[in-house]
Amino acid sequence: MKIKQDFPHRVREIENQWIVLADGTRLAARIWLPEDAETTPVPAILEYLPYRKRDGTAVRDELTHPYFAGHGYASVRVDMRGNGESDGLMEDEYAAQEQADALEVIDWIARQPWCDGKLGMMGISWGGFNGLQVAALRPAPLKAIITLCSTDDRYADDIHYKGGNMLLENLGWAATMLSFSAAVPDPLLVGERWREMWKHRLDNMPLLAEPWLRHQQRDAYWQHGSICENYGDIEAAVYMISGWGDSYVNTIPRMMENLSCPKKALLGPWMHKYPHFAIPDPAIGFLQEALRWWDYWLKGIDTGIMDEPPCTFYLQDGVPPAPKYLERPGEWVRTSNWPAPTDEIETTILALSERGLNPDGELSGDRLIASPLTAGSLQGEYIPLWFGADFPPDQRRDDGLSLTFDSEPYAEGLDILGQPTVAATIASAEACGQFHVRLCDVAPSGESALITYGTLNLNLRDDADRITPPIPGGPMDVRLPLDLIGYRLPKGHRLRLALSSASFPLIWSPQKRADLTLKAGKPTLELPLCRAETIPMPFEPPESATPCRVETLRAGQPRRTIHEDVGSGEVTVTIEDDMGDMRFESHGLRVEQRAKEVYSSHPTDATRTRADIEWVYRASREQGEGRFSVEVTSRYHLHCDETTFYLSAEQRAFEGETLISDRSWEREIPRTAI
User: Fold this and answer.
1) Mind telling me which InterPro entries this protein's record contains (predicted)?
2) What phi and psi values does residue 142 have, to the nearest 5 degrees?
3) Contacting residues for 32 by C-beta, under 8 A, at least 6 apart
4) Mapping DSSP to helix (H, G, I), strand (E, B) and coil, where does residue 10 land?
5) Which of 315, 333, 572, 602 could form an SS bridge with 532, CB 3.0 to 4.6 Å?
6) CA 448: distance to chain centroid?
7) 25 and 87 in contact (C-beta within 8 Å)?
8) What pLDDT does 385 receive?
9) What b/e readout covers 572-600, taking b as 16+ CB neighbours within 10 angstroms?
10) How far apart are CA 587 and CA 62, in angstroms?
11) Quick one: 230 exposed, middle or buried, by C-beta within 10 A (0-12, 13-18, 19+)?
12) Helix/strand/coil (H, E, C) string of 170-212?
């Protein structure tokens, strides 16, 4: 990545600025300005997050925000209430309070002498969510947003539920936030108040997994903050961006189809990161592309960005399966709309037949789908996030635990772009069940690479807000869209459709093992094929501002391991998210964070499914003013029987050797939909 230091504007940084809200709460902001902004006001760009500007996002912030300031924008990074150096408490994600505070922040920014009254919001993940949510409230200064790796439907596409099945990421992210929210305010910025602020947070720490687990259907809890409830609420221009290695891809076709505001979409090969430093390559000049967007909507400069086709997609070449990719070769295409016209995307129908996956035929007899509850251990991470072995490796083991249908080799290959969809009639042996479908690329060598997948909780098969348990043995017509994908099947490779009745540890096991039957008839796979012309790389090479000066005391070592007890058949997947130990050279703050997630499942006994997660956070300043040393250990545990989830958590916090907080939680939560 090219580092830029010579900008059109000299940049002035305000390391910490208090924004005082109407209730007296102070939010902490870090601001980068053109040096002459107070005499020549400029538009502002807001990024609003709970992840601590002091250390949590400081590395990426320094790549990004000074770059915008150097090109004539006030770039403002604000920590939400209850996080970083900001006052107050955060009760839940995407709460009404969070959005109300954002409106006050926007009003404050618009009234500053360095702002001309026009704003944009930008963010990835949490920041992408609240950009959409705040845009739906229509604050007058907000003219445009860039939302990355986000969703319009909190139930369908966040880290909680997928196809009505509970993701284990539901507990994983609750454990992450239990640790992140316990981070200490920096004494250099808040003074001696830091102990009082920190203790207040620890004493009032929310158990986020509890509401997330209690709301097992798509009810009012999830409808709040889901802009799909009324797409017409958004009038600001929306640029939506994600990557094929991320989990939020399905929101883009829905928003492109339903938003009535000005809009653009971009999908590249990336994991859950900003595209100027994400993997796999090719990374792009995201900051230059963002400037084209901001210049058009905030400065009225015709950059040509709205003259281009609205949708840009990267078609990944099929490559051998691997748990981590540094690069994915492929080609770029653009479509004139979404849904795309038939001359750009053409749908072909393949039958799941006696002869495999082919353009015609039918299934003359029923087929059993009898996966052990341990099937799915090679699915990979739901959200590749920490640069570890997060991508799905060779799928042959899980294919062997599934009912599979293979095509003949495609002599000329295939270009797939869209959401492949399976339509079938199935039956469950129990009054519950999961239907999981993977589409794979099978090489002549036999290697099986995951292309895309979908999953469905049969209790919620007709409607995510209505429980309709299967009648054991009774036929059910299901239609399951797989995740949006852009993929180039190589010449001579086959497609494989793999059907299973479990996928652990992606999703929590059903109430009991429920084998399925694929009923005889004409089950089909609708396959969207790309006919659009490929184009040369449409983006400039990546650039950034000067990176943050960080001393690495211990490099992070993320790992993912699978252990099988041959005697019992129990499978345990262990994920170690180790982010290392680092010191920020500009202010001396030292931070170490690591997590260990352990998920276990038994092939036949669903009551033996369990999850144990531990996070360790250490922070200190070893010399000079503002010296301190703290450590927080946070743990979550979940197990179940057929009727109840048993959730527990604990958190212990120390200043030096002194125990500051020791909390524990025990909850029993009825199983209603999952």
Assistant:
1) AB_hydrolase_fold, CocE/Ser_esterase, Galactose-bd-like_sf, Xaa-Pro-like_dom, Xaa-Pro_dipept_C, Xaa-Pro_dipeptidyl-ppase/CocE
2) -80, 110
3) 11, 12, 13, 14, 65, 66, 68, 69, 74, 75
4) coil
5) 333
6) 25
7) yes
8) 79
9) bbebbbbbbbbbbeebbbbbbbbbbbbbb
10) 14
11) exposed
12) HHHHHHHHHHHCCCCCCHHHHCCHHHHHHHHHHHCCCCCHHHH
Nearest to 508 by CA among 401, 607, 381, 636: 607
What is the three-class DSSP state of 398? helix
DSSP 117-156: EEEEEEEETHHHHHHHHHHTT--TTEEEEEEES--S-HHH
Report the chain's terminal Cα–Cα distance, integer Å: 45
The Cα angle at residue 127 between residues 97 and 326, in degrees rounded to 5? 155
Dump pLDDT digits (tens) for 312-368. 999 999 999 999 999 999 999 999 999 999 999 999 999 999 999 999 999 999 999
Token pair of 511 as six digits: 């109430």
CA distances from 314 to 133, 151, 288, 329, 648 (A): 27, 20, 18, 9, 43
Both tokens assigned to 662: 């020791």
Cβ-contact 508, 164 below 8 angstroms: no
As a whole number of angstroms, the distance between CA 33 and CA 259 comes to 32
Tokens of 450: 């995951």
Contact in structure between 204 and 152 (CB atoms under 8 Å): no
Tokens coding 667? 């909850």
Residue 69, both tokens = 């300031």
Residue at 254: amino acid letter: R
Structure tokens at 664: 């524990």
Overall average pLDDT of the 131-136 stretch:
98
Q: Minimal CA–CA distance to 530: which of 252, 283, 274, 343?
A: 343
E strand or H helix at 48: strand 42-49
Give the DSSP letter of residue 91. Answer: -
> Which residue type occupies 164?
G
Q: Any idea what DSSP says for residue 34? A: E
What is the reported pTM?
A: 0.96
Q: Residue ranges of the alpha helices (H) in 4-85?
A: 58-70
> What is the DSSP annotation of 459-481?
GGSS-TTS--PPPTT--EEEEEE
Neighbours of 653 (CB within 10 A): 23
pLDDT digits (tens, 9 = 90+) for 74-124: 999 999 999 999 999 999 999 999 999 999 999 999 999 999 999 999 999
Are 661 and 203 in contact by the 8 Å Cβ rule? The answer is yes
Cβ burial, residue 186 (10 Å; 0-12/13-18/19+):
buried
Distance CA 302, CA 510 (A): 54
Radius of gyration for the chain, computed over Cα atoms and rounded to the nearest angstrom: 25
Distance CA 19, CA 84 (A): 14
E strand or H helix that includes residue 581: strand 571-584
Task: Classify strands 559-564 and 571-584 as parallel, antiparallel or unpaired.
Answer: antiparallel
**Which amino acid belongs to residue 380?**
G
H helices of 304-453, in order, are: 396-400
Please give the pLDDT value at position 389: 86
